[in-house]
Amino acid sequence: MSKKAIIFDLDGVIVDTAKYHYLAWRELAIQLGFDFTEAQNEQLKGVSRVRSLEILLDLGNVSLEEEEKTKLLIEKNNQYLEYIAEMDHSEILPGIDDLLHYLKLNKVPFSLGSASKNARLILETLELLDLFDAIVDGNDVSTAKPDPEVFLIAAQKLGVDPENCIVIEDAQAGIEAANKANMLSIGIGDEKVLQDANYILNDTSELTIDFIQKLID
Fold first, then answer.
1. Could you tell me the domains of the chain?
2. I want to staple 204 with a disulfide (CB 3.0 to 4.6 A). Which of 75, 93, 108, 200 is the partner?
3. Which residues contact 97 (CB under 8 A, 6 or more apart)?
4. Is 138 exposed, middle or buried (0-12, 13-18, 19+ CB in 10 A)?
5. Pseudo-torsion of CA 40, 44, 49, 54, nearest 10°?
6. What would the mean pLDDT of 97-102 be, rounded to a whole number?
7. Burial letters for 164-188: b for 16+ Cβ neighbours within 10 Å, e otherwise?
8. CA distance 74 to 51
9. Within 13 Å of residue 14, how many CA atoms lie on the same side as its CB?
10. How far apart are CA 145 and CA 143, in angstroms?
């Protein structure tokens, strides 16, 4: 068994559910009387659902009571769940399916480390759930990224020291969390946003088996 372990973020790394989050948040914004752009949606990357709503309300200059906020969070999540229920295996990002199966075959432990509370449902829909050695999602943590809690719990579940873990992330908050946890960080996306990552790749197609193999050897 490998002495190294890999922790995958979900959105933007395994599958692009960000577009569905965006559509659900935008519907909520329109309902509240303002528009919500894709550029503004970048502020919600890697952020908890509660914090995302706060950012959205700030953008629209909308002030609500806690009870109303709770209703909106449920409404947004229900809309999002309707979208992801339509997903299938074809929506797994390029190269990820092959990489996960390669890691499994070669007994390299790997976990999910995601802020999403729907992570298990999404992995099940994509027929990937049974591949993971551990799942840590928004239901398992008390503090969101950039706090390293999610990755430290994942390392513990995998039985691997944090310094022997490799985190794959697409959000700046996730890279910051990985670095705080003393883990090697790989950023997927814009190098200006992910400049603190140890490695930066344009997209998941660059996350090749050869590239990962060099890191775990």
1. 5-16+88-216 (3.40.50.1000), 18-84 (1.10.150.240)
2. 93
3. 89, 128
4. middle
5. -50
6. 97
7. bbbbbbbbbbbbbbbbbbebbbbbb
8. 14
9. 31
10. 7
Residue 5 DSSP one-character state: E
Per DSSP, the three-state class of 6 is strand
Residues classed as catalytic: 9, 11
Alpha-carbon separation of residue 169 from 7, 50, 53, 66 (angstroms)? 9, 21, 22, 31
Q: What is the pLDDT of residues 129-186, one digit of tens each?
A: 999 999 999 999 989 899 999 999 999 999 999 999 999 999 999 999 999 999 999 9
Residue 72 to residue 66: CA distance in whole angstroms: 10
Q: Cα separation of 61 and 17, whole Å?
A: 26
Quick one: average pLDDT of 102-121?
95
> Which residue in the block uniquely carries the two structure tokens 């400049």?
195
Q: Tokens 């629209």 — which residue?
A: 60
Output the six-digit token pair for 88.
């299938």
Q: Which residues pair with 159 in a beta bridge?
A: none
